[in-house]
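HUMAN: You are asked to prepare a plain-text protein record giving the amino acid sequence and the backbone structure tokens, both parts labelled.

ASSISTANT:
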Amino acid sequence: MTRGVYIAATGMLAEEAAQQVIAQNLANASTTGYKEDIPVFRSFDENLVSFADSSGKMLDTLGSLGNGAAFDAAVTDFGQGGMQQTGNPLDIAMTGNAFIGIATANGTCYSRDGALTLSRAGVLVQAASGLPVLDDKGGQIQLSNKMTNVHIDADGVIKSDAGVAGRIGLFAISMAQRPRKIGGNLIQTTIAPPIVDATRDPGAGVRSGFLETSNVNIVREMVTMIAGLRAYEANQKTLQSHDSLEEKSVNTVGRVG
């Protein structure tokens, strides 16, 4: 019966971890360019159950016996979010597999948050973090606060009445680069991602004057949260039942013996 308590407890812990992931998604449902995380579970190794005779000789295999489940990881869904028009020429919404490079204290990171502005020094930065946006060569982008009729082309080229002012670096990230979230709506990779190749991914680029909204589906997240709570409650009742049986075994069966 202790085994039943263990399995129920691991199920509760797994559901609790999943609830934290869902809560994080809901908290960022209105965050520009946020990508939702999906909780993934795994089962513990199963035990093979066999039938043996009185001498201990194995006669037949009865099947496998599970040992509970555990929270494995939060896998990020990099699917496209919606488009929100802002009218700000420095705002960009990434489309397809395209991320902008951001200079941080931990090196180059990547983001889909395209709400951009100019610092007092004229450096192109993210509006929320104030971190510099990188060009296609890995350097900061220096612009003039006096530029007029600014427009950013689909390939990241910044133009104004004065001509070409720079080019925003667009990077293609896949699972091969082992991307992971590090907070602040930033993604860090183990391997540096390549520059977007328009011939391979013609849909990858930017839209000037737009922002990409979060790809979190609030209704789906709420349904998943409720289902997780029900699973947690079921595991809780199972644990309580096993605890009650063990109490009876100790206090009743043991006394009869």
Observations:
- The chain has two domains: 2-77+216-256, 83-212.
- Residues 83-212 form one domain.
